[in-house]
């Protein structure tokens, strides 16, 4: 049963669910947005900006906290980040399911009492994130692009980890993933063009990465839909 405060203004039986997507300016919800709309979920976008803050939770059934060029540790430079952390903490208190992706997974972990810090090395490209809990995380290559890592919040259940970082966890009705189940090949091309210098500095072969993205597109989309379905099975319970 939903907490009364959350239920106020949220979707009742038979009404369209509403999801609040927190993302950077000019960013896209990608396949996550597609999966949501396929289920009849209305996705409302709120763009991160230092001079703004997220809207209140009232009226939203789900939160999608997506990736960012910011770091969770940048809260001193971008006040939005502090606001987002408080919103995610409030969502947890009220039982509002959160799907946290990359920055969003780190922010959710921080909001729940964990920590976030700079990784020893960046993790960029198509990687295996296992061993995994295959009931939630398909055991397939996932696209990742991150420079920070996070501490598992308590209480939370680890779902996937590799030798670079923790990769996925469940916390109550929420799911955090370090990788990018939302990303499409077109989005990756945009990121690669914008981050060319970073890829070179990390020793990443951008052309090979883009070729992999095209080759893995269909299987990645299928895996993304499976992960989203697992998230929604808990969110709608």
Q: Would you summarize the structure shown here?
A:
The chain has 237 residues and is α/β, with parallel strands linked by helices.
Structure characterization notes:
By secondary structure, the protein is α/β, with parallel strands linked by helices. The protein has a single domain, classed as Rossmann fold (3-Layer(aba) Sandwich), CATH 3.40.50.880. 35% of the residues lie in helices and 24% in strands. The chain has 8 helices and 9 strands. The chain has helices at residues 4-7, 30-38, 79-94, 103-111, 185-194, 196-201, 206-215, 217-235; strands spanning 18-24, 42-48, 62-65, 98-101, 116-127, 142-150, 157-161, 166-171, 174-177. The strands form 2 sheets. It has a 7-stranded mixed beta sheet, sandwiched between helices. A hairpin with a 2-residue loop joins strand 8 (166-171) and strand 9 (174-177). It is globular.
CATH superfamily: Class I glutamine amidotransferase (GATase) domain
- By DSSP (H or I, 4+ residues per run), the number of helices equals 8
Low-confidence stretches: 1-10
Radius of gyration: 17 Å
Number of strands: 9
Global morphology: globular
Q: What number of structural domains do the residues give?
A: 1
Strand content: 15-25%
Provide the succession of SSEs.
Answer: HEHEEHEHEEEEEHHHH
Query: In the CATH classification, which architecture applies?
Result: 3-Layer(aba) Sandwich
Query: What is the CATH level 1 assignment?
Result: Alpha Beta
Specify the helix fraction band.
25-40%
């Amino acid at each position: 049963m939903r907490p009364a405060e959350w239920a106020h203004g949220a979707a009742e039986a038979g009404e369209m669910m509403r999801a609040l997507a927190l993302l950077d300016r000019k960013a896209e919800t990608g396949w996550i947005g597609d999966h949501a709309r396929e289920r009849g979920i209305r996705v409302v976008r709120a763009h991160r900006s230092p001079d703004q803050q997220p809207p209140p939770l009232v009226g939203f059934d789900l939160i999608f906290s997506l990736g960012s060029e910011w770091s969770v540790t940048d809260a001193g430079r971008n006040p939005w980040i502090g606001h987002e952390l408080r919103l995610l903490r409030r969502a947890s208190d009220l039982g509002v399911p959160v799907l946290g992706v990359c920055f969003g997974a780190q922010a959710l972990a921080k909001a729940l009492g964990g920590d976030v810090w700079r990784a020893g090395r960046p993790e960029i490209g198509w990687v295996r994130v296992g061993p995994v809990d295959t009931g939630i995380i398909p055991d397939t290559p996932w696209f990742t692009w991150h420079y920070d890592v996070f501490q598992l919040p308590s209480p939370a259940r680890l779902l996937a980890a590799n030798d670079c970082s923790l990769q996925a966890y469940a916390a109550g009705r929420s799911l955090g993933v370090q990788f990018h189940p939302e990303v499409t090949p077109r989005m990756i091309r945009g990121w690669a063009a914008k981050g060319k210098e970073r890829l070179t500095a990390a020793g990443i072969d951008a052309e090979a990465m883009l070729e992999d993205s095209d080759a893995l597109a269909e299987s990645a989309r299928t895996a993304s839909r499976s992960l989203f379905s697992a998230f929604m099975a808990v969110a709608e319970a």
